[in-house]
Amino acid sequence: MEITGSxxxxxxxLSAIGGGIGVGLVFAAFIQGVARxxxxxxxxxxxxxxxxxxxxxxxxLGLVFAFVW
Amino acid sequence: MxxxxxxxxxxxxxxxxxxxxxxxxxxxxxxxLLFIVxxxxxxxxxxxxxxxxxxxxxxxxxxAAAQAExxxxxxxxxxxxxxxxxxxxxxxxxxxxxxxxxxAELKAKAASESARITEQAQVAIASERSAAxxxxxxxxxxxxxxxxxxxxxxxxxxxxxxxxxxxxxxxDLESQQAGAAK
Amino acid sequence: xxxLALPTATEGDGFQAPQISDLHLPDxxxxxxxxxxxxxxxxxxxxxSVVLISWFFVAAARKRQLVPGKFQFLGESIYGFAxxxxxxxxxxxKEFRKYTPLLTALLAFILVNNLMGAIPxxxxxxxxxxxxxxxxxxxxxxxxxxxxxxxxxxxxFKVATVPSGVPKPFLIMVIPIEIVSTFLVRPMxxxxxxxxxxxxxxxxxxxxAAAMSFMFTGxxxxxxxxxxxxIFVGGLAMYLFEIFIMVLQAYVFTxxxxxxxxxxxxxxx
Lengths: 69, 182, 269
Prior knowledge:
The complex is a heterotrimer. By secondary structure, chain A is an all-alpha fold. Chain A contains two helices and no strands. Chain A has helices at residues 7-36, 41-68. In chain A, helix 1 (7-36) packs antiparallel against helix 2 (41-68). Chain B is mainly α. Chain B has one domain (18-181). In chain B, helix 2 (20-152) runs antiparallel to helix 3. Chain B is rod-shaped.
């Protein structure tokens, strides 16, 4: 039996691990912060989404390279 | 499957390469939508929101005004009530002091009246007594001499002598009384 | 796993997983033309969504009742969500009014275009074609750079790339990172996040559908039926999850737009 496919998919899978962990950490910290200090939500929310954007950027770069190479 | 892959690679259909038709259509479509939204939809919604806000705000203001009015009325009533209460207190106080005054006056008057009456009575008693004493002195003397004359049988007409005897008797009596009083 | 367990496709007889190019249908306007040369189904759906959203919003907004009916309430809650939850919370009480139309249009447009993938027969999220995602993200990209230059003048590029409070020697390292992350990675991730989630979600639903149909009709064994039913249940779950992801991605796209706008109109950070 032979398995065909692209190594790119595996590489993307690996790159998604880091992004997944990172996004989890960002939102865990966000939720903790809001739970401790609910009135800080307005300040924290843009920061959390900036963090999400930055962190997920790595996973999305992985996706791009999976398609490009 | 092979066919599709070949077709795709022939087109260069990398999913990250945009189809420029799509970009164009999306841009035009979205800009039209943006125009419609910003020109018609948002102003209408904002107007609705504002009207609703005004309606709610107006209701709240009206309620607040009514509340304030009621508060003012209540305050006024309370003020009046407390005024009336102080007035009543004052009047009661006045009445009490007046009553006390009247009472004191009456007492003083009664006391002076009673003192006067007592004095009068004493004076009257004293004069009665002195009158009684005087009359007694004369009558007792006369009676005693008449009695003594009858007993003795001899007229004690000699007034001078008899008067002397009576006087001596009376002064003895008085001195006896004084000794008893001591 | 199932695909691996089966004999590999040699004759076109075995299981064929759907390909990405299956999403790229032939164009309509030159009928049956190769994908990319003309006006296709996806673009038709984009225009349909524009018409639908415009009609919906205008119809919902036109009545302007103080106590809204159901229809007006739905429109108002979508509008209120874009205006208050996204706009006012992110941009602040003073600034958000100017950007409400953009945010509302973006939210509604992406939401409807994503949900195109969940409607039977339409069945393709138009944002799973990268051109649409690029167009929206590019528009937002140009817009927030424009806003930054309008607010700060040409100094905006210094504001955006030189963080304050970093020691001088580190700036050599930090500035290129900031340039790359702000001006290259941002628009790319902004568009690709939407595109990739839509594409992969749609592929998963398509995969389960293809696998189920293969189990029922193509396999010809009795155990194809229970297995196919199992896949149907899983596919249904993925379908519902995909709807959730569609709504979430519309929210995230709009929210990130607001965050980027806030970053360029805010004072130097």
